[in-house]
Amino acid sequence: MFTQQYRPLFKHAQLESVKASLVAAATQALPLHVRLQRALRQLILDGTLAVGKPLPATRALATSLGVSRDTVESAYGQLHLEGFIERHVGRGSFVSPRAEHLPHRPAGARTQRVTRAQALSRRGAAIVQRGGVLIPAAVRPFAQGLPETRTFPLAIWERLQRQVLKEHGSGALTSAPAQGLAVLRQAIADYVSLERGAHASADQVLVLTSSQQALTLCATVLFDAGDAICVEDPGYYGARKAFEAAGLTCMPLPVDAEGLRVDHLPEAGADSNGPQPRGLYLTPSHQFPTGATLTLDRRLAVIAWAHRHRGWILEDDYDSEFHYAGRPTACVQGLDLHGRTIYIGTFTKSLFPGLRIGYMVLPPELVAPMTAARTLLDGHSAPIPQLTLARFLQDGHFGAHVRAMRLLYAQRRDILAHLIRTHLSGILEPRIPTGGMQMPCLFVCDMDEAEAVRAARRAGVDVLGLSTLHAGQTPAQGLLLGFAAHAPHEMAAGIEALASALHERVRRRLA
């Protein structure tokens, strides 16, 4: 306890409050003098230590708290620098008169916090209401959109990265151009031109962190709030959320076995309850989630529609590398002679999610505006991964890895279909896709989709309800299962857990 000389300066309750604060803050791994400084500052902010009140001498407080005098001296010195106390040689330390202007909370009073409704703009509230894009924290069966990373040629990647660091030295640690490093843009342009049939030069490529960032840029740069954009129905929820967050109206168009139903594209002057759409979002290589490939005649029809209406086609080619029946169809951008198509690609599906590199191939007139807009989001992509990826592409490692994964994923797709038909017959029927990384499965019995999803997750299985991917038409009831990231034994265990959960739901309903 304090000596009699300093007892009036710090009451017992105040001293115990300081001690309690020091103990509580110990879990934060902060230095002792910082913990003491914060505890004293809080007493001043709470009004417990009033303006002009003297503080104990450093030696006396150190003795009472069982700490060194240097610790107290450091805490007092920081409080003095921050203006909370004044120190006078020969007189001691006092709560500064400036503390009188600090907001004080009366003892026992509750803090009036701002509610979410008060804090958010209409756009912010809309983003929260619709939710973000799910990013799996762990790879559990049957998480969607995840590649197999355990077979990635990490030794090759590490060797290329060492080469990059040796060649560029500290230059690889600096900022990169907002559009992306020229060597990577050239490698991307070469790849999409050769493998995807695109018309691309390095000057048209904008390197980004993800395809989701590309969608956000397109939504804000190409469209105004209140504009309409056509989307596939069912379709990728991340795109729809990005568009709606920007204030766009999504016009759902149905999908069949040949992709988007182009006969449903709205024409100018036609009867409509909303604005004429100024764009169209497509996943033509492997429609998400059905896996359908947009036929050539429909691709040409989409291009003609965009040309007539001076609209934009946002072509999301998120996993075109993984096509299991012949070669992938050439991209829409390569067929578009009018320059109305924006090609979006990503390496997080074909390589590994932690890479965080995507890109857009833009019409020349959009490169500067999109690059400027990108600087407002995150400035630029990290140079070292860009340089390493460029070498990975140029040296042929990317092509070799994709070919190996194409074979692996095709095998896993077939294994998953067999497991579903074996263990979930009468409940789920798989719709085997010709490409992609996930398999839609339809319920063939009376099953509540939301209950099935919850039961699956309780069983340790990540599935997505197909109805949640619909925006307009009567949704199909079923589940979407990813297969690319899961080994056969993992899928077998996951299907057994899923079958147990769903069969239990059926038994309960029949009981």
Care to describe what's here?
The protein contains 17 helices and 15 strands. The protein has 3 domains: 12-101, Winged helix-like DNA-binding domain superfamily/Winged helix DNA-binding domain (Arc Repressor Mutant, subunit A, Orthogonal Bundle), CATH 1.10.10.10; 152-395, 3-Layer(aba) Sandwich (Aspartate Aminotransferase, domain 2); 400-510, Aspartate Aminotransferase, domain 1. It is globular, with a radius of gyration of 30 Å. The protein has helices spanning 12-25, 32-45, 58-65, 69-82, 116-119, 122-130, 154-168, 182-195, 211-221, 237-245, 296-309, 332-335, 364-375, 383-394, 397-423, 449-458, 488-510; strands at 54-55, 85-88, 92-95, 205-208, 228-233, 249-256, 259-260, 279-282, 312-316, 341-346, 358-361, 428-430, 438-443, 464-465, 478-482. The strands form 4 sheets. Strands 4-11-10-9-8 form a 5-stranded mixed beta sheet, sandwiched between helices. The N and C termini lie far apart (70 Å). It is α+β, with helices and mostly antiparallel strands.
Descriptors:
17 helices, Aspartate Aminotransferase, domain 1, globular, alpha+beta
Average per-residue pLDDT, rounded, comes to 89
CATH level-two architecture of the largest domain: 3-Layer(aba) Sandwich
Helical amount among residues, as a percent range? 40-55%
Using only CA atoms, what is the Rg? Answer: 30 Å
The largest β sheet comes out as: 5 strands, mixed
Spans where pLDDT lies below 50 across 5 or more residues = 1-9
Structural class: alpha+beta
Count of helical segments?
17
The figure for the number of domains is: 3
Q: How many β-strands, per DSSP?
A: 15
**Distance, first to last CA:** 70 Å
- The CATH superfamily of the largest domain appears as Type I PLP-dependent aspartate aminotransferase-like (Major domain)
Shape: globular
